[in-house]
Description:
Elements: E1 5-14, E2 17-27, E3 32-36, H1 43-50, E4 58-66, E5 69-70, H2 76-85, E6 87-90, H3 104-118, H4 125-138, H5 144-147, H6 157-170, E7 175-179, H7 187-203, E8 207-212, H8 215-221, E9 224-229, E10 232-238, H9 239-244, H10 249-265
Parallel strand pairs: 3-8, 3-9, 6-7, 7-8
Antiparallel strand pairs: 1-2, 1-4, 4-5, 9-10
Helix pairs in contact: 3-4, 3-6, 6-7
The protein binds adenosine-5'-triphosphate.
Amino acid sequence: xxxxxAIEDLSVEAGxxxxxxxxxxxxxxxxxxxxxxxxxxxxxxxxxxxxxxLPRGLLPxxxxxxxxxxxxxxxxxxxxxxxxxAVAIVFQEPxxxxxxxxxxxxxxxxxxxxRAKRDGAPxxxxxxxxxxLDLLRxxxxxxxxxxxxxxxxxxxxGQRQRVAIAMALACRPALLIADEPTTAxxxxxxxxxxxxxxRLASERDMALLFIGHDLAVVASAVDxxxxxxxxxxxxxxxxxxxxxAPSHDYTKGLLQAARHFDDxxxxxx
Length: 269
Ligand SMILES: Nc1ncnc2c1ncn2[C@@H]1O[C@H](COP(=O)(O)OP(=O)(O)OP(=O)(O)O)[C@@H](O)[C@H]1O
């Protein structure tokens, strides 16, 4: 099976400081992989590097092949095409993705229309409006017709994250990167968003790179995990194996911390 995403010996440097070192990671079509680590371990930078969105001044080395195309060194035009079809990201804070001055419907319509145009079957007028409502329904938003006319500040945090997910899905990515998509939400809403991502990934044959620091949350969403510490992948393997028999002390520490937390709130890992 050829990889949808193949990261090989990725390093990211800023001013001579190495933020990611020699990271290799492959994701096949429809595969679900979790990237775990504490704050500052390099998870978000990995996601940004994969989508060609690293901030200015951060220099990537190595290779990132996405749907067979090299991302590192690619021209902006090529990256835009990849972001429109191969990969989309959902961020921790949905407001990052949403324009506060635009209705939910218009924001979802834009990527839908772009993707349709690229596919040679442009969507306009009532066909576009009905595609927007279908997508809002697909992410289980209540009363899509009313919600399409709302502005981001008029809906809840969980609903905003569903809208951000709808926007990401609008370009029908082969790989969805979810960068701590539930961290800013309450526990019940977290569980609902996880179930939603799980359903959408299955229904749409999408691969998932799920990023998080909470081992219990990540483990429930993926088949395989990669554990990162200070920019280095220290351990990787099937979820069950890593949870049952972590080989690295850092992973053992993460597991222990998660168990203490779960015991405190009555949840079991
Ligand atoms: N624009 C930047 N310039 C310089 N250093 C940066 C920049 N962005 C991130 N870093 C550094 O890179 C390292 C990795 O950051 P990254 O955001 O990938 O961590 P993370 O694991 O996603 O953390 P969190 O869980 O808090 O989001 C950190 O040490 C961070 O300070």
